[in-house]
Amino acid sequence: MPLKVNAWTQWGKLKTVVVGRADFACFQPEEPGFRGRINNKVIEKELNWPVGRKKKSVIDKANSQLDNLASTLSNIGIKVLRPSPIDFNQEIKTPTWKVTHMFCCVCPRDVLITIGNFVIEASMSKRGRFFEYLSYKDIMYSLWDSDSSMKWKVAPKPTMNSDMYWEGYWTKFNDFDKKSKDEQDNLLYDYKYVLNEKEIAFDAADITRCGKDIFVQHSMTTNLRAIEWLRRELDGYVRVHILNFPYDKEPSHIDCTIVPLRPPRGKKEGILLTNPERPLLEKDKKFFTDNNWCLIDAPMPSQANYPMPSFCSSSKWLSMNLLSIDENTVVVEEGEKGLHDLLEAFNFKIIKVPYRDVFEFGGSIHCSTWDIEREDSSQDFFNIESY
Ligand code: ABU
User: Does residue 367 carry a catalytic annotation?
Assistant: First the structure.
């Protein structure tokens, strides 16, 4: 069957997907946009954030879980494509900066997004990920050759010069707990993150799709200029909404914060999985509920997956980083029993896969996939007058 580019939602029946690979993976290099933090009180005192290649045994374990996800999906009839990793353990430089190595190609979600018949290559926001798109070139040309209606859109590549980043961010929340409620609110609601507005920069994982509407998180990895770029480029195609989650001090990628699971149909409510520690603003919550979406909070992450692996830079909310196969079937990490039970109560079928060994490579199941084709169309699930 020829490949086709078509995805308007997070829940249409999945036909073709990319699953990342961990080959040649390195630690994410420290740079103005990224500071490594070790999740282990003992190791943290003895070690700086590591540099260079990750250990072979760690890479092999991640690859085994990624391969298992790939075969689980192909066994249920989904076409699975895989990236072509480059050697990430190489210095890269531009005329103004260099980093000693790159990261990996475990998380295509951050680099690429399908919106309708467009594939958008994100500009990316971190130096160590500047060339990550190269691992997907073969896939992009296969899509291009196979589907004559595919549109290929590349976002303006930022310089990633130091003046694109606000270093003050790294101390912004120092002594946060000692501050007054007003002072805390001032910090939480100023929406000032490490990326400033000098140039367009975003990761594709800050976007989630609901048919005619897409929601883009303003974050550490996506600035307002980038959201404006998306709005102009997609004008007339989809409506672009900005979301802020003030209680997330380090927002990066929307797929651990809200996950649209099922749309409203007639009197039946749609389901939006939400993060209890990162509530939507009242106006945004109202937009969903006025349009017949039911918001359900994810349960606290499972003790089986917490604490997070020592070198994992993502939050514990990888627990809700699931992949929808259709609007009744989801793939969830095997240890997240609370989430399995919650979703089963809403009549979802759960496919469980082990994934903890992938966490330190940038994310979980949703992060490490990129849906290329779903049975989907440009449906309107929102009455825009209500916004
Ligand atoms: N790459 C997804 C990470 C999101 C989070 O840490 O919450």
Answer: yes
